[in-house]
Amino acid sequence: MPDTDKSPKRALADHIRSAVLTTSLAPGADLDEAQLAQEFGLSRTPLREVLRELAGEGYLTLQPNRGARVSDMSFATMRGFFQAAPMVYGAILRMAALNATRAQITALKDAQSAFKHALDVGHAADRALTNNRFHEITGEMAANIYLQPSFNRLLIDHARLSITFYNPSASALSKERELASRQHDAIIEAIEARDADTAAQLAIDHWNLSRNQIELFVFPDALDVPLGSLPPQMPA
User: Fold this and answer.
1) What is the pLDDT averaged over residues 177-198?
2) CA pair distance 204, 214, nearest whole angstrom
3) Which residue range or ranges hold the HTH gntR-type domain (predicted)?
4) pTM of the predicted model as reported, rounded to 2 decimal places
5) For residues 21 and 17, what is the distance between their CA atoms, to the nearest angstrom?
6) Rounded Cα–Cα distance for residues 73 and 80 (Å)
7) Cβ-Cβ contacts under 8 Å for 162 (sequence gap 6 or more)
8) CA angle 26, 169, 136 (to 5 degrees)
């Protein structure tokens, strides 16, 4: 439902961002623009302005004569994700350590408190969103007009892929989630100390922690079949 404390356009934009990041709007899903316009009290022109904004950020794709759809997560997209993520994450945290303001460090600590609370009592969506906000702030700290758009685009897919990692029912991953939280604390310490080298290394360590779970999402065991071979036939 729309947030009455926000303008209808801002409420719609925030609603779509959250729904995409938590996969409530599935990758590749078409948006029902008529329903959204009615729900948020918007005419076609301001609605399309919001959709264009979100397309520019990477949440949506605008299709000629078909309207808007959620950005897809194809194998080509995932290949680019795996290639770019460690390089961009490392550069972002290195620059964050050099450029962060005191107010931003305070905001990062607040985001980490929200993330820890979500780990204790939240659902997968709460955990993914609070984790995403933590990393968004590091991008704001880096303050690089060339890196930040790429980083924000990576965070969209990272959040969508992390829903499985943060699912409370996946109790086997509880130790990995606790380690992720400790790495957040270490990232804050490195940024606060202006230790760019340590911050960059923590970015790689943090990426490696989640990479294996992301790979399981992209290449599930059921699809681990050599090319040109068929799965074993089950008895009739």
Assistant:
1) 97
2) 15
3) 6-73
4) 0.85
5) 6
6) 11
7) 127, 128, 131, 210, 213, 214
8) 55
Nearest to 88 by CA among 153, 160, 1: 153
Distance of CA 47 to the CA centre of its chain: 24
For residue 101, which amino acid is it? T
**Selected residue with higher pLDDT from 58 and 75:** 58
Helix ranges (DSSP H) in the chain: 8-21, 33-40, 44-57, 75-99, 102-121, 124-142, 147-165, 174-192, 196-218
Tokens 């993520």, residue?
A: 85
Q: Give yes or no for a contact between 13 and 60, defined as CB atoms under 8 angstroms apart.
A: no
Task: Write the burial class of residue 184 (CB in 10 Å: 0-12 exposed, 13-18 middle, 19+ buried).
Answer: buried
- Can you say how many angstroms the Cα of residue 64 is from the centroid of all Cα atoms in its chain? 27
Q: What is the pLDDT of residue 223?
A: 41
**What mean pLDDT do residues 191-213 have?**
91
Using the predicted structure, report yes or no on whether residue 210 has a pLDDT greater than 90. Answer: no
Please give the backbone phi and psi of residue 134, each rounded to the nearest 5 degrees, phi first.
-55, -50
Give the span between the Cα atoms of 203 and 91, in whole angstroms: 9
- Contact assessment for residue 88 and residue 147, using Cβ atoms and an 8 Å cutoff: yes
User: Coil, strand or helix: which one is 65?
Assistant: coil
